[in-house]
Amino acid sequence: MGEEKKRFIQEFVPGKQLTLSHLIANPDPDMFQKLGIQEAGALGIMTCTPSETVIIAGDLATKSANVSLGFLDRFTGSLVIVGSVSEVEMAMLAINRFLAENLGYTPSQITKS
């Protein structure tokens, strides 16, 4: 008898949460070129669940700090914020705070590199 194979099925059950909040300070200029976005001092990367939340997050980012949206995808919940390090961080803090306090989301710790 051969070895019995086991199959695992994973199911993703999304909650209301920010699953990633990461700030990249002073990224390599090649990164901006490869992403196809304008060069700036920092990139803020966020992922929102459910994915449509990224629309709210993008609006909050541009209203709370002097940043621009490098990328927003309502199907995956991915958001890239572009600006100075302090402005990107301010926008990310505002997004985390608003979603947690007003919409009951689980916030994400902002990590940095």
Automatic annotation (TrEMBL):
Main localization category: other
Gene Ontology terms: cellular component: bacterial microcompartment
Family annotation (InterPro entries): BMC_CP, BMC_dom, CcmK-like_sf, EutS/PduU/CutR
SUPFAM superfamilies xrefs: CcmK-like
Coiled coil: none
Keyword terms: Bacterial microcompartment
BMC circularly permuted domain location: 7-105
Superkingdom of this protein's organism: Bacteria
Pfam families with a match to the protein in the record: BMC
Protein location: Bacterial microcompartment
Name of this chain's protein: BMC domain-containing protein
